[in-house]
Structures
1.
Amino acid sequence: MALTQHEAEHDQVDVDALTAERFAKMSLVGGNDLPPIDPSGLPPGPSWPPIVQTMALFRYRHRFHPWLRKTYGPTYTVQLVPGGRPLVLFTKPEDVKEIFAGDPEVFHAGKGNSILGPIMGEHSLLLQDRAEHKRARKLLMPAFNGQALRGYEELVADLARDEVAHWPANRTFESLQRMNALTLEVILRVVFGVTDERRLAELRPRVNATVDINPVIMLAWSYPRLQQYGPWKKVVDNQHELDRLMYAEIRERRTAPDLADRSDVLSRLIREGMSSANPEDRLSDTELRDQLVTLLLAGHETTATALSWALYELGRNPELMRRTQEAADARDADGDAWLDAVMKESMRLHPVIPMVVRTLMKPTTVGGHDLPAGATVGPSIIVAHSEVNYERAAEFDPTRFLGQNPPTNTWIPFGGGVRRCIGAGFSLMEGAAVLREVLGAWNVHTEHEDGPRVRNITSVPDRGARIHVTPR
């Protein structure tokens, strides 16, 4: 149940209790309420122990997904911890369409994303289903509509301009590191609305530690006792510190004298709740915390990774670099369209997220397969973006997205249907704005080959997408 504003005025002890309660409540992957499943009727898949399949899916995803499709066909089953829960992955666009168009009362994304629960919390847009998800999405949508995005763009450009102004000339460095720093600053200022340098300095390391979680740590959330030890305890302790900072920011924002004039997402959500006569439009501090963390994790590293891959690929191709610099200089509709295409092709060639998942609440037929309640289904983004659907799939070619869209349900970095990422427009706007500032100031050259490395639920450039920059 949502907390009232009075109840949400927590002291430090109360915040610690809330964090501990969240970890205790959200640590069981898949939850306790899913029925047992007979795997004999499921599509084919490996017979390895669930822990081995789970590690392969998380740690070696970029080889495991294509191998699964090649070995078992377009639909296959992986069994995951805890308890060998089945995950059925689909790779045909028509099957992907069925999943995205599925009844949200049956296809639950919340349970499918439950591994994120200890960090994001039960009120997270990614973890809610049914009426709760519809309500949260309705409250968040105005902060990401076209008018709001246009208001954010100038601040994003200012932050990007300041970032690239401090780059060292004639030096080689990891673009991922710099893009992570920049997109974190964007999130903290545009979404959280934090401007106090002291609090920014406190938040940055806590957020970075939250993002940089090893997949082994995430899997261990299925076994709460581990949270008392070593690296698992370190993650929990970091969450306590981050929560204290976030609740403090939320409390202070509610009474900020300039609340009416602020345009950041947090201020918008608080203001809308205060002005509405409908109690359903008011988010408690705990709800605000969960949604802000969701926006942070969903919008920080993903966009940074797509940007770093874009710079890496442009730096490998002088002709594409020249064309993209011309687009950055033009600052017109045609230039914007090209920068948008560069970002989309980066997301296609280098998927940041490996798959999109839904858990079935009742027996359902998907792609001709009769599946039981409790099974998790979803498209493999890694396979969808590959040669299965694209000619010359290994080639970086932004013209695939210039003046046209790829075939339906073959480009799915933001998911689809009613659960399509609410920040998709923001991510593409931010990417284009950052590319415009970077390429307006620098020539970019790529000096080292790179490939994907699993970081948590995301994949990032293994060597940081190292680039060498020279002034234009």
2.
Amino acid sequence: MIGTGLTVRYLRPWRIELTVRPGVPRLRSLAQVARLVDAALRVAGAPAPASIGVILSDDGELSALNRQAMGKEGPTDVLSFPLLPPDAFPPHPGRSPGPRAAPPAFVLPPGTRPHLGDIVVSVERAIDQAEQGRGGQTGSVAWNPADELALLVVHGVLHVCGWDHAEPEEEAAMRRIEMEILADPGWLRGR
């Protein structure tokens, strides 16, 4: 553990950088969060090897990021910051297939991994949504905050991997994939 709250987990072929902001409650172990990220990256067909960052934060940080990145006021539960275009990932239902993105115009130094992007999750929002019955995929589920956090992590990773939910077909496919990942007990206990 580095003094900044950063923990790095290697789940081949991924380097998963996990940051927990000071004062943020731990609803899931970092090992479980890393395994969720691993599962979502595999299902999405992310290029490998690669790295990804996950920041577990609060409403204050998500409010500021939501304003800066999305032009929206107030906190949100998860924001994704992909670094590769959606076409760098395999096509999926609801996304019109385009040509696969060309490899980057530059070559990475030996032994380095491309960084796929980062997700930032408000653990505070996950707790509130779950306890107030505004959680889950429908925004109407009362459940354990740890389960809400798991859903938000998977959702954020899928966004980094080119998934979206603007079109009904893609949203339905994304929701199906989320539930498949969450229903697999492997991420809870490890493989």
3.
Amino acid sequence: MSEDNSIPKSKPTTVEVRLPSRMGFEKVAMSTAAAVAKLMCFREDRIEDLKTAVAEACINAIEHGNRLNEKLSVGVVLSVSADSLEVKVIDDGKGMNRQPGAVSKPDIDRKMHGDEGPRGMGMFLIQALVDEAEWVVGADGNSSYVRLVIRLDKEQ
């Protein structure tokens, strides 16, 4: 008798992980996201894309959001739906200098023309690897998150 270890697509499922703001713990989030994606039957190449995007988002939250303050943590919330996996990476810090409630996207033209510093290329990488990416500063100005969505292929 074989067991079906996949996640039922008809029931919403949420997995949450809280990480210390210390480099290296992004690997815990990567492994967790990969395990959930595998249970959802994502292709291996898409799982690798997801792992890279989640790692980059966690590193940004640790370094830029929480500013390496080990008293703060990073939350990772994975939400499974019938055709996609949403990952929110939430920091407790002030993050980059943005207005509360602001949604940000990287501006490649400004970087290419030297109007913005070279840092922040990870945001471009994240956008290239997932189907949706959005950066939001919390209403209180003391938290922010990145929301990533990766969709299952129709033929899966």
4.
Amino acid sequence: MRTQVAIIGGGPAGMLLSEILHQAGIDSVVLEQRSREYVLGRIRAGVLEQGSVDVLRAAGLGARMDREGHPHDGAAIVWAGRSTFFIDCWKYVGRRFLTYGQTNIQEDLFAAADRRGAQLLCEATDVMPMDVTGARPHVTFKRNGASHRLDCDFIAGCDGYHGVSRSVIPASVLRVFEKVYPFGWLGILSETPPQPHLTYANHPRGFALASMRNPMLSRYYVQVSLADRIEDWPDERFWTELKARYPDDIARTIVTGPSVEKSIAPLRSFVAEPMRHGRLFLAGDAAHIVPPTGAKGLNLAISDVFYLSRALRAHYGERRDDLLDRYSETALRRVWGAVRFSWWLTNLLHRFPDMGDFEQRAQEGELDYLASSVHAQASVAEQYAGMPFE
């Protein structure tokens, strides 16, 4: 088999890259370890920055998103003993964000791939990038019991944190930065009317977040111990705990109902540098993970794809490689900005197990300052709404 760009991973990053490259006349083959049904069943992020919305629209993926997505001017923050305040992204930076589930984006990408007859090979196992620094890069894999080799010009590793792509970069080249947080998020989906705004809560019992997917699909989270299991959290306990972390005026408006999905996710910050090694380019979770507090994970994957697709178009269309050569440093500037913001917001809104009186009062002082300073709110709004692409 032969293609121009071999893409490892059929999640949003890999499928979006394939779609954009196709529109530029660049061939690709996508190798996905899991089945299509498994990929579609993954429940992930649902908050899109304006820049991400623009990229999806430019790729011809905006029709359903614009019809079913919900724009928001900003997000609210509440904490014990204080009134709610609102971070108004539209007021301060003239940008909104959109709630539109990653599952919907994945469905849109698969539908677009089917329309154009894309080469998407699901259930490809033992995938391995080979000769990534040599003259004949290729990917070996197995499918339907047979071994295959896919020759290519470039390899895009879009296979997530646990994928194989990053592992082929030698330890002497790869530098890893990681912080693991001492708690997780228990999240549920329920077919109930959501809160009107994304609302973060800092409470002595722990963090909570009210989010949404559509007018009849709510997404809620509470901070839990890493030792907790799904079985420890029947729906009744979850709703009781969620309401306890919000002021009474908000708690009374939360509509409860049976959960349709429930999961516990650990939180970590992770960055791997560089994001390029020879003819291998990392994108999305293969190169970086952020805690979901800042809603940056999916948006970073989209920005990686924006930079990488632009560089590949320049290579094939203009015979220039300066953008490929600068891909890693360009992408990492945006990555580290989002990593820093997500780390800061996580520290601001969560109760850490080892927090003493000093740390607690300092956190409350930071929240007081944010609530009272238009300059602080403008800074947060700029970062939450997403910095412009370079």
